[in-house]
């Protein structure tokens, strides 16, 4: 076996897992990641089950891969991630040509599963939740990174929102120990990474062993990482409002490297629906926290996740969500129609919202969010932004692409060698999905 192809569905945590899988298999089996599945000796599908049709998407993708199995020698096919965790043996029964099924917590066992499959010729399934083990068993990270990298610091969820499959697929909350995270971030910084995004299903619920003084909470982890030389920008996603405590709010005021942008999913602006979702927070507390953050960091911007058409959502409930959007003036957010997920308590709620109503509400909500995002982009025109250059732009060899502190993409012409630098760019134009700017060499910030 020489070549590996990985297809990833879903969130940034899955992308991180796929990267770590590739690093692991490069070390254990000398596999090289290729972009063409037809060339691969091992195909991995890293799946996500958060929303509607996730399972169908997996079965369709496996259908596309089926003809590869006719090749001599046939490649191995492995399915990992949340759908694997949720479907388990059923997946193996429905798609008998799958060789390996592994969960989000057993990806480190892939080398052994591959060897076992090759030796014993029986398909391998490993869907355990052995906390701790996964990160301990992954190799150090080799240098293959751009200026921006993800680091998973926390996994799983104990909140059990009634719509959400995550606690059932990723398991309970688990935080990596502080020294492990510091080591990984240091390595990435040594390799030229300048922006780190900390990941977790509930990243701000982080509580990790410090090695010295008991456990550290999330704000202290941020303080610890902010001290590392070379780090220019720190972000994190995704947060739960209940874990946004006073200490974390204070950290946003203290730490200049912390980007002035926070993804803080609220899901709904109606207290009645929030209760049915079992979110354990109400609109007023959410707004108080937003206000407190604005007090310590006036330029901070917020994005959110929204679900429309949750069972029982009335016109008034939906109007309350739109009111909340006006109150916060959210930036680019993610919004979804509610979809029933396996094993979740919301399945039992009967008063479903008709599909056309869900669609109408989604269109209204997305329309307003896009307007707000555009308004903000236009307000940036004429300002000078600190832009972290992520690489050459896809459009033109003489242009660069970078990110503003609030995570907008900016394209601008500039001299050679800017990748990884933090530069000053005057914003000249707001396009629907990006900004254009003018490089200000004399104002370069690094
Ligand atoms: N239906 C629709 N959206 C969902 N999400 C999670 N579960 C569901 C579901 N059953 C959305 C939430 C969450 C985001 C990651 O996905 O908004 O914050
Ligand atoms: Fe799912 Fe709620 Fe946990 Fe987020 S907080 S992962 S929405 S159960």
Description of the structure:
- This protein has 446 residues and is α/β, with parallel strands linked by helices.
- It folds into three domains: 3-126, Rossmann fold (3-Layer(aba) Sandwich), CATH 3.40.50.12160; 142-379, tm_1862 like domain (pyruvate-formate lyase- activating enzyme, Alpha-Beta Horseshoe); 382-443, Beta Barrel (OB fold (Dihydrolipoamide Acetyltransferase, E2P)), CATH 2.40.50.140.
- It has 14 helices and 22 strands.
- The strands form seven sheets. It has a six-stranded parallel beta sheet, sandwiched between helices. A five-stranded mixed beta barrel has the order 18-19-20-22-21.
- β19 (399-403) and β20 (409-413) form a beta hairpin.
- α9 (218-226) packs parallel to α10 and α10 (246-254) runs parallel beside α12 (283-296).
- The longest helix has 26 residues, at 355-380.
- The radius of gyration is 23 Å and the shape is globular.
- The model has no long low-confidence stretch (mean pLDDT 93).
């Amino acid at each position: 076996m020489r070549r590996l192809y990985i297809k990833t569905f879903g969130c940034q945590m899955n992308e991180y897992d796929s990267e770590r899988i590739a690093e692991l298999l490069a070390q254990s089996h000398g596999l090289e990641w290729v972009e063409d599945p037809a060339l691969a000796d091992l195909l991995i599908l890293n799946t996500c089950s958060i929303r509607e049709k996730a399972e169908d998407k997996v079965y369709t993708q496996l259908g596309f891969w089926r003809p590869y199995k006719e090749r001599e020698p046939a490649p191995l096919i492995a399915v990992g991630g949340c759908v694997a965790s949720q479907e388990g043996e059923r997946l193996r029964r429905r798609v008998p040509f799958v060789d390996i099924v592994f969960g989000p917590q057993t990806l480190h066992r892939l080398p052994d599963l591959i060897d076992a499959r090759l030796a014993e010729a029986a398909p391998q399934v490993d869907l355990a939740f052995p906390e701790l083990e996964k990160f301990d068993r992954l190799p150090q990270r080799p240098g293959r990174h751009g200026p921006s990298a993800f680091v998973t610091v926390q996994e799983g969820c104990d909140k059990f929102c009634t719509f959400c499959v995550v606690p059932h697929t990723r398991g309970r909350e688990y935080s990596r120990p502080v020294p492990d995270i510091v080591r990984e971030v240091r390595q990435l910084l040594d390799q030229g990474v300048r922006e780190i995004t900390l990941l977790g299903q509930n990243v701000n619920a982080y509580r990790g062993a410090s090695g010295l003084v008991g456990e550290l909470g999330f704000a202290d982890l941020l303080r610890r990482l902010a001290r590392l030389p070379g780090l220019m920008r720190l972000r994190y996603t995704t947060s739960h409002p209940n874990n946004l405590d006073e200490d974390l709010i204070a950290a946003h005021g203290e730490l200049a490297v912390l980007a002035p942008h926070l993804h803080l999913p609220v899901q709904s602006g109606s207290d009645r629906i929030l209760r049915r979702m079992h979110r354990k927070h109400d609109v007023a507390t959410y707004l108080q926290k937003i206000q407190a953050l604005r007090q310590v960091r006036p330029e901070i911007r917020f994005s959110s996740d929204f679900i429309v058409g949750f069972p029982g959502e009335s016109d008034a409930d939906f109007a309350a969500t739109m009111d909340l959007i006006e109150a916060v003036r959210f930036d680019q957010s993610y919004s979804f129609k509610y979809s029933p997920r396996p094993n979740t308590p919301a399945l039992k709620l009967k008063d479903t919202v008709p599909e056309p109503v869900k669609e109408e509400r989604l269109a209204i909500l997305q329309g307003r969010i896009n307007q707000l995002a555009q308004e903000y982009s236009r307000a940036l025109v004429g300002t000078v932004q600190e832009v972290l250059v992520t690489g050459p732009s896809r459009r033109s060899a003489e242009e660069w692409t970078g990110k503003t502190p609030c995570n907008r993409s900016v394209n601008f012409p500039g001299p050679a060698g800017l990748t990884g630098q933090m530069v000053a760019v005057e914003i000249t134009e707001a396009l629907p999905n990006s900004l254009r700017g003018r490089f200000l060499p004399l104002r370069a910030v690094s």
